Every structure is written in C-alpha cells, then in structure tokens.
C-alpha cells in the first residue's frame, strides 16, 4: 500500500489529515477529514490526541485561514475522539469560536456532544452531510453521506485496506447493506486510502462475512465434537501473525453468536461450541 502523506487534498471539498497514530489496527493512522469549501469547515474525527496531530491540524487551518464550525465523531473509540479536548482547548486559548461537537449518543461518552440522529443533515459551504447510523463495529457508529459528491465517510465500517472488527455481526452486515443503498461512488474510510469503487468494496465486505461464516461451519465439522473459538482461529488464521489472533478470536465469537441465533450452532459451558448436525456450508 502506498504511503499516505500527512495532509492530502482529496477533492475540492475533502481534505484528509492523518492522526499520526500508526499501528497494527490503525494502519497508517486514523483518517480525519476537513470538509467544505468555505472558510468554515467541518472536521470529521479527531485522532487519538497526539500533540503532533494538533500541530498538523492547526498548520493546515492556518494555511488558508480556515476555522472549524463543527466536529463530527463517527464513534466512541479513542483513536477517533481522543483529540477533541486538545482542539477545544486550542480554540478557547486563542479566543476563537468553539466548534459544536456532534456524536450519536452512547452510555460511556466522556465528551459532551449534540446528539446525532439517523437522516440528520449537517451543512457547511460546499458540503451537505447526511447522518447514516451504522451500528455493528460499535453500537454508536455512524457514517456520513456527502450529497455533493455521492461519497460516504465510512468510519471503521469499511477500511481502505483489510477488514474491520465488530461487536454485533448481524447489525454490522445490515449496516453494510444500508451504506450500499446510497449507491456511493467512493468511500472515505476511517483508516487507509480512499476506496475508489464503493459498491464493489461494500459487496466484497458483505460476501467476506458470509464466506467466513461458512468457513467456521466447515472447520467445526472437520474438528468434530465441541470446539472453542481459539481452536477455530488456529485453523483459519494459521498463516497469519499471532499478534492478530486475539482480534480474530473476537470476530469468530461474533460469528458464532450469529450462527447460534440462526440455529446452526449451540453454545455450551466453558467457551465450547457444538455444530448442529443439520448445519451445512
């Protein structure tokens, strides 16, 4: 994958600013986006709170004498909301109007926000953003559809490289279909490069989950008897680095919970699962 520059003007409306927090699960870092064409922009996500990110954001704003009217947060994970307090402190200490902060409500929110609702529209010069609730990665996750471009900011529902994790598989798969219903031309992901063929990528993600589900059923049949999620991971992810196995195991558990709801597996004590005899792949 090509290295992403710290700041990239992707279109006349969208500028990507990296959160400068690269890692195994953040790829080259969290993508934050300045959106709009006027002097007052919308900022989507804020990185995890790196001092270097605040400096990069401020220098980007200063270059064209821009300000931020609104901060939109895709979900509660630290690498997306961690920079909020630093940004607000900077605006306050420089006697600048404080941005309004918007987020879908979540019980563990630590930042005071104006609540987002599905279908809500937030505007600035050159940009009309429609809120698309997309639970699954987290229960409070939202995407944003940019009407002027027919593009979608997917947060962590879809990444620019690889696949994402989720806490509710059924909700996540429904969210993929919901984003696809907007027929977006491109995806601006929470991590990684821009996805140029949005419809294809959303279909690929959905199909991948179906294939993983069938793969789990097949492995359970091969292993026979009762199995744990880790035993399934050791087969499916045998060629992957072991430092991703923990996250993979969480994903397998989510699949097993969905399969249990579908009546294809049975949950037993001690973290064991049993394939029902009639289950097919």
What topology does this entry show?
Elements: E1 7-9, E2 14-18, E3 31-35, E4 40-44, H1 51-63, E5 67-73, H2 78-81, H3 84-93, E6 100-103, E7 114-115, E8 121-124, E9 127-133, E10 142-146, E11 151-155, H4 169-181, E12 186-189, H5 198-223, E13 226-228, H6 229-236, H7 245-261, E14 265-267, E15 272-275
Helix pairs in contact: 4-5, 5-7, 6-7
Distance between the termini: 33 Å
Give me the number of helical elements: 7
Indicate the proportion of strand residues.
15-25%
The largest sheet has its strands arranged as 1-2-3-4-5-6-7
Name the structural class.
Answer: alpha/beta
Shape verdict: elongated
What is the ordering of alpha helices and beta strands? Answer: EEEEHEHHEEEEEEHEHEHHEE
Q: How would you characterize this protein structure?
A:
Residues 29-191 form the Metallo-beta-lactamase domain. This protein folds into two domains: 7-196, Metallo-beta-lactamase, Chain A (4-Layer Sandwich); 211-275, Winged helix-like DNA-binding domain superfamily/Winged helix DNA-binding domain (Arc Repressor Mutant, subunit A, Orthogonal Bundle). It is built from seven helices and 15 strands. The protein has helices spanning 51-63, 78-81, 84-93, 169-181, 198-223, 229-236, 245-261, and strands spanning 7-9, 14-18, 31-35, 40-44, 67-73, 100-103, 114-115, 121-124, 127-133, 142-146, 151-155, 186-189, 226-228, 265-267, 272-275. The strands form three sheets. It has a seven-stranded mixed beta sheet with strand order 1-2-3-4-5-6-7, covered by helices on one side. Strands 8-9-10-11-12 form a five-stranded mixed beta sheet. Strands 13-15-14 form a three-stranded antiparallel beta sheet. Strand 11 (151-155), helix 4 (169-181) and strand 12 (186-189) form a beta-alpha-beta unit.
